[in-house]
């Protein structure tokens, strides 16, 4: 995967599961550190999970990942062409965005330095619904320049609003004469919200996109037994109280029958991704991982869904998935569980988080301050 070579279609190399770098940030972890990151990457790479998605916004994720990837134990074992690195530009803090040409270029160069890499496999414009569309087009133009310079291989956009992502993808194809390579949408191909499958995939495919990343299959940690994650920055999760209460009822129900909400949610998201994937249009699931135990748990869950082989490189090579009798039984059981979960969620099924919300001015890219 030398960046100077003409890249193959991203759909041919994107694995079904991607390690999310937000787990190494202050947003979702109380003490992100180099030791934790190195141990997670060592275990993930050993088991074949060798695609990473992060962002400059997930501070200090890029720095920690770069230190881990350049550690002798990693550098001497894995060459750069044995893993994928994806990051993002444009979002700086919770309330600060900069999509200008100068900042996009500076941000990419900084990411290259932080990650200790000569090129990036994918760069996304981060949370595009928060800024004017014209500014997104400007940023995409800069990323395309950097593709020609050999610093980036593939480009895309990320965000929550499916309609905004589809509109920008169509406009980008028209204005630049080529489609975006990839789109990332979060928390909308989950056990709680399936709008990405119904409202996004066809629109993205029509815009020429060949890879879609479904990030946050647990809805930023909402779909688990122990509540939303609280990092150094406090409780930032957008789920309202009613949804949190409904999810707690789901978790309690599943616990009573010996099932894990987090594992069921991940299996469900990966099955949905697999159902809509084809050789020329791939859906990848990005899962947040903060510990070696979570690596093992997520890989075990993914393996149940994708295939029965225990070959360590199965996620990287993405060999043909196949189901054994036990997997078919598990899938049928899961469908019954999902049906019950949906009944418990009731009115909260397919609920969408407001993004950016009524308190945000897209034109000024600033919060709206209520007048007294």
End-to-end CA span:
57 Å
Helix tally equals: 12
Uncertain runs are 308-314, 317-325
Q: What does the radius of gyration come to? A: 20 Å
Work out the strand percent.
5-15%
Q: Largest sheet, order of strands side by side?
A: 1-2-3-6-7-8-9-10
Topology order in helix (H) and strand (E) letters: EHEHHEEEHEHEHEHEHHEHHHEE
How many individual β-strands? 12
| CATH topology-level fold name | TIM Barrel
User: Which second-level CATH architecture applies?
Assistant: Alpha-Beta Barrel
CATH class term: Alpha Beta
Structural class: alpha/beta
Assign an overall shape: globular
How many strands, what sense, and barrel or not for the largest sheet? Answer: 8 strands, parallel, barrel
Describe this entry's structure for a reader:
- The protein is an alpha/beta fold and 372 residues long.
- The chain has helices at 34-46, 61-69, 72-75, 101-114, 133-148, 162-176, 195-206, 241-256, 261-276, 292-306, 314-317, 325-345; strands at residues 17-20, 51-53, 84-89, 91-93, 96-97, 120-125, 152-159, 182-186, 211-215, 282-288, 360-361, 366-367.
- Strand 8, helix 7 (195-206) and strand 9 (211-215) form a beta-alpha-beta unit.
- It is globular.
